[in-house]
Amino acid sequence: MTEAWREANRANWDERVAVHLRSYDLAPLRAGRGQLTPIETAELEDVAGKRILHLQCHIGSDTLALAQMGAEVTGLDFSAPAIEAARALAAEIGVAARFVVSDIYAAPEALPEPASFDLVYTTWGTICWLPDIAGWARVIAHFLKPGGALYFADAHPAALVFDDDVAGPVGFPGWFTPYFDTAPLIQDDTRDYSDATARLSAMRTYQYIHPLGAIVSALIDAGLRLAFLHEHPAVAWRMFLALERSADGMYRWQDKPWLPLSVSLMARRPA
Ligand SMILES: C[S@@+](CC[C@H](N)C(=O)[O-])C[C@H]1O[C@@H](n2cnc3c(N)ncnc32)[C@H](O)[C@@H]1O
């Protein structure tokens, strides 16, 4: 597996680990009360006692928050430094969780536990890194127990067509890329979203916009049934400079809810 997209993205994510260990707010987690966003808190059922697979777990902050809520969690990510950091964080705060290094598409081989999870959880900055949305959905279905569910929350694909690097109407991001463009967005960008002072040397990334219909259809084709799909005028990070941080930690448009910023859904494998 030496495709250019994978090698470039992995080098980029490997380098971000040290940056995020400094810039992510891990204080609540260290204090024993790791939190998810208000969107997830409102939509996720009680996770206590559930067997959860967290795909693209990064440095394990959300994985460990779920473990602190009583879940038995396995975090999976293709970045070895990210998984090393997640294991170190788990040991530091004394929370049990299992972490696996694997590309998402190789997860069925790396983690030979088909049909064994109550919940597959994957949120905030995930599928934009994956070229094959149908393959992503098949991996999720592979790991779910009959009756188990996927919970997904991420940037709304309609918002991803805009970017602050392109001039838009005054105070707004501009049109950046077509919604239905299937080619990867190949960018060289030294910046990091959580630390304005960071400069990355592994700067090339391959990203993908998966239209909402493609995401839902991929899950249906993989055998899952949609339980809900919610569009939100709020997102977990400052996606655009025009957004303002609200008291709940989410970012919203300042005046009107112009465009959905995030989407969340639950889809179940039939019992
Ligand atoms: C934005 S982060 C995950 C989001 C998480 N909510 C966070 O902020 O901690 C994206 C993660 O996806 C992982 N990733 C990207 N492409 C992957 C792939 N093909 N297989 C497995 N993990 C991948 C990266 O290593 C990174 O840790």
Task: Tell me about this structure.
The protein is of the alpha/beta class and 271 residues long. The protein has a single domain (4-268), classed as Vaccinia Virus protein VP39 (Rossmann fold, 3-Layer(aba) Sandwich), CATH 3.40.50.150. Helices cover 28% and strands 27% of the residues. The protein has helices at 4-23, 27-30, 38-43, 61-68, 80-93, 107-110, 133-143, 212-221; strands spanning 51-55, 72-77, 98-101, 117-123, 144-155, 162-167, 173-175, 185-188, 204-207, 225-232, 234-235, 243-245, 251-253, 262-268. It has a seven-stranded mixed sheet with strand order 3-2-1-4-5-14-10, sandwiched between helices. Helix 5 (80-93) links the parallel strand 2 (72-77) and strand 3. Helix 1 (4-23) runs parallel beside helix 5 (80-93) and helix 7 (133-143) packs across helix 8. The longest helix is centred in the first third of the chain and has 20 residues, at 4-23. The radius of gyration is 18 Å and the shape is globular. The structure holds S-adenosylmethionine (SAM). S-adenosylmethionine binds at residues 9, 13, 56, 58, 61-62, 77-79, 82, 103-104, 123-126, 129-130.
Characteristic terms for this protein:
single chain, 271 residues, alpha/beta, Rossmann fold, 7-stranded mixed sheet, 3-stranded antiparallel sheet, 8 helices, binds S-adenosylmethionine
Could you spell the SSE succession in H and E letters? Answer: HHHEHEHEHEHEEEEEHEEEEE
Unique bound compounds = S-adenosylmethionine
Strand order of the largest sheet: 3-2-1-4-5-14-10
Known CATH architecture = 3-Layer(aba) Sandwich
Mean pLDDT: 97
Structural class: alpha/beta
Low-confidence parts: none
CATH class division: Alpha Beta
- Care to count the β-strands? 14
Radius of gyration: 18 Å
Largest sheet: 7 strands, mixed
Q: Count helical runs.
A: 8
